[in-house]
Amino acid sequence: MEEGDHQARVVEALGTDCPPAKIQKVIFLLQDHKHFVKYFEPRVASVGPIHHGKPKYQLGEKYKLRLAYEFVKGCRKNINVLYELVEKNIKQLRECFEEEEVTKKYDDEALDWILFVDGCAILQYILCAVAPTQDLTANNKFTELNIKNDSVVFAHQDLFLLENQVPYHLLKLLMSSSGKEGDLRKSIESFIRNKDKSKDDTDPQLYRNVQELKAAGIQLKRSKNSYLRNISFRRRLNFYPGFLCLPPIIVDDSTGPKFMHLIAYEMCLDFKNDFGISSYIFFLDSLIDEANDVKDLRKARVLHNFLGNDQEVAELFNEIGTDLVPKRRNISPWSILAFIGVLLALILSLTQTWYAAHPPPGPCDDFCKIFP
């Protein structure tokens, strides 16, 4: 009986003693997931000790050093002052991580440097990301640091990965000594709420597939030449809806590899460009969701299918359009026009429905009120 009581007390203690969650690796049950690398591993930059030192994140390390340098420079304090702040608190910071699989291989000095660089880089990244929302005339801060648009977007995703975290206490320490703690806190709040617009990220709600455009009365039309930028929206007699004009494209076995290599070329770090191909494929992918979208593009003589199956074409563009980072200014002029056409058509339709159910009062209505 006494042994049973003891076991009960142990179970009760375990149930009530809830230690704080630690930064750790993804649970082993998910490590065999077929898309583990895609969903759980960083794309550009490692943050914290778990993925630190892996060769594929060498470019991310360069980016982090640039960002950390800018942060320290903006604080107008000697780098040693900020570094010593992390150093003095390393014991408390180390306790925020699971030890066996995460921090055991790092001594205090190594962990100091990892957390110092990553903490400064994160805060500077967030400052750069939210800057345009505070000042519409501000230059792209990432461009000034020679960090390309696609790397910025993937780094944004990396910051929210389970295995890519640092303690918030680290950020609080650095902010408290920065001389701009208030601005940094506001930037973090804005960043987490996804209000930052500096990533040139696109709003998926701006774009509609062919079936939705068709339902709103917008028709597809073939542009006069096959120049990829020759995309426009034209109204018929200045009334909505109108025509979305697209350049003709031939789709065959070479289309996928050809566009994938052009996209890869645009993403090269030493090649500054406007992501024209990526923007085109991103827009085409938004138009094509299913085989019927391809069928309507064929009927409009915009797309010539030499793959033989409309569903194959849809899957092809859905595949190569995955994880693309288009430049917003490349796609806005004509996509927004198309969206406005859809929006106005829907508004007109809703307005007609509402008036049919709620006709406006006329002279007879006022007269009838006198004689109920």
UniProtKB/TrEMBL annotation:
UniProt keyword list: Membrane, Transmembrane, Transmembrane helix
Superkingdom of the organism of origin: Eukaryota
Chain segments annotated as transmembrane: 336-357
Protein name: Uncharacterized protein
Species of origin: Carpinus fangiana
